[in-house]
Specification:
The chain has about 450 residues and is of the alpha+beta class. It has 3 domains: about 150 residues, Beta-Lactamase (2-Layer Sandwich); about 80 residues, Helix Hairpins (Orthogonal Bundle), CATH 1.10.287; about 140 residues, Heat Shock Protein 90. The protein has 9 helices and 14 strands. α3 runs antiparallel to α4 and α7 runs antiparallel to α9.
C-alpha cells in the first residue's frame, strides 16, 4: 500500500472512531438531558399529588389528582402512588399494579430517582419523596411516588441518534475530503523529490538543492553529499584509468623501437611478432582512453544517427573487407540520440567491422524509433550467423564468432560498454540469413 493510502486509511479509521465516540457521547448527553427534563416534569406531578391529599371520613384520599389524562387511563404511561401507614393510594393508570419501590431510607423532603419495573413489564422512571403529613391529614410519614414509562426517553434518544446519523456521515465525508487535501499537500514535496531525482539521472540537474521543506531537506542534503562523493570517485577513477593508459604508451613505444632495431638486424619474424603484440596493446590502450573520455561526457551530448552511420560506412568501404560488400544505410534523417558522436561512431564501427568480416555480400544498417525515449540501430549481415547457445555470450570480453580468425575479440564488448554507458544496451539475434546486432540508445 502506498504512503498516501496508508495515511488516508489510518486517518479515516481515526475519524470513524472519533465520530463514533462523539455520537455515543452526544446520545448519552441527550438521554441525560431528556431524563433530567422528565424528572423535572415528574417533580411537578409529585407536587400536585402531595398538594391534593385530603382526609375524608377518617381516610386519606387524593381529592385533586394531577390534570394529565394519562393518570386516569389504565397503563397510560403516567402513574402515582402514595403510601401512608396502612393506606395505599394509587392512580387509576396503575389498575391492579403496585409500584415496586426499592427499600431505601429517605429523609423528610428528600427525593430519589429510580428505574423500576412497571405494568406489563415496562420499565419506569420514578421519582419518590418522603414527607411528614400534617395533623389534619393524620400525621406520620408518607411516601409519594410518580413514575413514567422509560420507553419514551429511550425512543427520544433513538430518534435523536437517527436524526444525527446523516449529519455525522456528511461530516465524515467532509473530513475525509479535507484529509485527502491535507495528505496531497503534505506529500507534494515527495513527488518533487522523485522528479528531481529523475532530472539528476538524466543530467538535467546537478544537485537536489536547498529549496525543500524542513523534513525533506536532510534527505536532499544526504543525496547531494552522495552525488558529490560519486562525482569525486568517478573523476578519480577516470584519472587513474587515463594515467594507466598514458603510462603504458611509453613501454609500447620502447617495444616498437626494439622491433625496429630487430628488423634492421634482419630478424623480420621476431620484429613482426613484437609489432603485432605492441599494436594490439596500443589498440587496447586507445580504447581504454576512449572509455575514460566517454565517462567524462554528459548526457547532454547529441549525435545524428544517419550522419554518423554514413561516415562509418564511408570509412569501411575503403577496407579490404568492406570494399567487396554492398552497403545499405536505411536510416531516417534527424534521429538525434543522447550519445556523443565519437562514441556512437566507435560503437557502430565495431559492429559494422564485425559484420563486414562475416558477411557474404551485403551489410545493412537500419534505425527505428521504438519507445518515446529510445531508438534502435541495427547492423545486419548475410553471413552464417551464430549458434543460438553462443548469442548470449558474444558480448563478453574477448568473445569471438570465429575463434580462428583475426582480431582481439573486443569489438562487441566495446560496443556494449558504450551503449550501456549511454543508458542503452546491445542485443544480438540471428536473422535469415546472417546476424543482426542492435544498439538500443536513448533519444535526445
Amino acid at each position: 500500500m502506498s504512503l498516501r493510502w496508508r495515511l488516508l486509511a489510518a486517518g479515516a479509521a481515526a475519524l470513524i472512531l472519533a465520530l463514533g465516540l462523539a455520537a455515543a457521547g452526544l446520545a448519552q448527553l441527550f438521554a441525560t438531558h431528556v431524563e433530567r427534563r422528565a424528572v423535572a416534569e415528574l417533580s411537578v406531578h409529585l407536587d400536585q399529588v402531595m398538594s391534593g391529599l385530603e382526609r375524608r371520613d377518617g381516610a386519606l384520599v387524593l381529592a385533586r389528582p394531577p390534570a394529565d389524562p394519562r393518570f386516569a387511563q389504565p397503563y397510560g404511561g403516567l402513574y402515582w402512588q402514595v403510601a401512608a401507614g396502612e393506606a395505599l393510594l394509587r392512580s387509576r393508570s396503575l389498575w391492579d399494579h403496585e409500584l415496586a419501590l426499592p427499600d431505601d431510607a429517605l429523609r423528610d423532603g428528600e427525593a430519589h430517582v429510580h428505574r423500576i419495573p412497571g405494568p406489563e413489564a415496562a420499565g419506569l422512571l420514578s421519582l419518590e419523596r418522603t414527607v411528614a403529613l400534617p395533623e389534619r391529614l393524620g400525621g406520620g410519614p408518607a411516601r409519594a411516588t410518580v413514575a413514567m414509562t422509560a420507553a419514551e426517553i429511550d425512543s427520544a434518544t433513538r430518534a435523536f441518534v437517527t436524526d444525527m446519523a446523516p449529519y455525522l456521515a456528511l461530516l465524515l465525508l467532509v473530513l475525509v475530503g479535507a484529509q485527502w487535501v491535507q495528505v496531497s499537500v503534505g506529500l507534494a514535496p515527495l513527488r518533487h523529490v522523485g522528479a528531481r531525482v529523475s532530472a539528476l539521472r538524466r543530467d538535467r540537474a546537478a544537485r537536489m538543492g536547498a529549496n525543500w521543506p524542513r523534513e525533506v531537506q536532510p534527505l536532499a542534503s544526504e543525496l547531494d553529499g552522495l552525488l558529490a562523493e560519486r562525482d569525486a570517485d568517478v573523476a578519480s577513477a577516470r584519472a587513474r584509468a587515463g594515467d594507466l593508459a598514458h603510462g603504458l604508451k611509453t613501454p609500447l613505444q620502447a617495444l616498437l623501437g626494439e622491433a625496429g632495431r630487430l628488423r634492421a638486424q634482419g630478424e623480420d619474424t621476431a620484429a613482426a611478432g613484437i609489432e603485432e603484440v605492441a599494436g594490439a596493446m596500443r589498440a587496447h590502450v586507445e580504447r581504454e582512453l576512449a572509455r575514460a573520455r566517454t565517462a567524462a561526457r554528459a548526457r547532454a551530448a547529441r549525435a545524428d544517427a544517419a550522419e554518423v552511420a554514413r561516415r562509418v560506412v564511408g570509412v569501411l568501404k575503403r577496407t579490404p573487407d568492406g570494399d567487396r560488400l554492398d552497403w545499405v544505410c536505411d536510416m531516417p534523417d534527424g534521429l538525434s540520440l543522447a550519445i556523443d558522436e565519437a562514441d556512437l561512431a566507435e560503437a557502430l564501427g565495431a559492429l559494422a567491422e564485425n559484420a563486414a568480416r562475416h558477411a557474404r555480400a551485403r551489410v545493412t544498417l537500419t534505425a527505428r524509433a521504438g519507445e518515446k525515449t529510445a531508438a534502435q540501430i541495427c547492423v545486419a549481415d548475410d553471413g552464417p550467423g551464430l549458434p543460438p547457445a553462443r548469442l548470449a555470450a558474444m558480448t563478453a570480453r574477448g568473445a569471438r564468432a570465429d575463434e580462428g580468425g583475426q582480431g582481439s575479440g573486443l569489438g562487441l564488448t566495446i560496443a556494449a560498454e558504450i551503449a550501456r554507458a549511454a543508458g542503452g544496451d546491445l542485443s544480438l539475434r540471428n536473422t535469415t540469413p546472417g546476424l543482426s546486432a542492435c544498439l538500443t540508445l536513448p533519444v535526445a
